[in-house]
Amino acid sequence: MSRIGKKPIPVPKGVEVNIQGSTITVKGPKGTLTKTFNPAVTIKKEGEEIVVERKDDTPFSRALHGTVRAIVANMVKGVTEGFTEELEIVGIGYRGAVKGKTLELSLGYSHPVIYEIPEGIQITMEGNTVIKVSGIDKEKVGQTAAEIRSFREPDAYKGKGIRYKGEVIKLKAGKTVGKK
């Protein structure tokens, strides 16, 4: 039995959970999330808790059990608290700005990088070097942060680029001139 999968998910006050077959809808103060899961696992609401159970003991069902429980728990957390990912822009002349529904980044290229902000995601800038990506869907927040980071990944020699807040970049040594 999956240790994560068998833990019940507490439903806080103000959160509505609607389960129809293998589709679950979670509605809270920050918004609504709907997701359909594989029918190999069943999701039930028992009192003020959500319980995830698997129908059989196949390796596929065992693999899904903990995963589905974690996703449902993230849905409940997302509609109550939300998720935030922070990115830092490191490098001389590298900066960003939010203009309407787009994020405009100057990353040392000959042109500015313009990123359309996806629906359901909020992006704010602290100064012009810290990007805050937030939303209620953990998967979407993480994907958006990864896409922004991919525009200029941290350089292995100088450390310039876009990195997650707190990410440690191990810098390589540059060329050395040897004696003959």
Radius of gyration: 21 Å
The overall average pLDDT, rounded, is 93
CATH third-level topology of the largest domain = Outer Surface Protein A, domain 3
Structural class: alpha+beta
Number of strand elements? 13
Topology pattern, helix = H, strand = E: EEEEEEHEEEEEEHE
Low-confidence stretches: none
Tell me the overall shape: elongated
Terminal CA distance reads 65 Å
Tally of alpha and pi helices: 2
Strand content: 35-45%
What topology, given as strand order, has the largest sheet?
11-12-7-13
By CATH, the superfamily of the largest domain comes out as: Ribosomal protein L6
> Helix coverage percent of residues?
10-25%
**What is the CATH level 1 assignment of the largest domain?**
Alpha Beta
CATH architecture descriptor text of the largest domain? Alpha-Beta Complex
Q: What summary fits the major beta sheet?
A: 4 strands, antiparallel
The domain count comes to 2
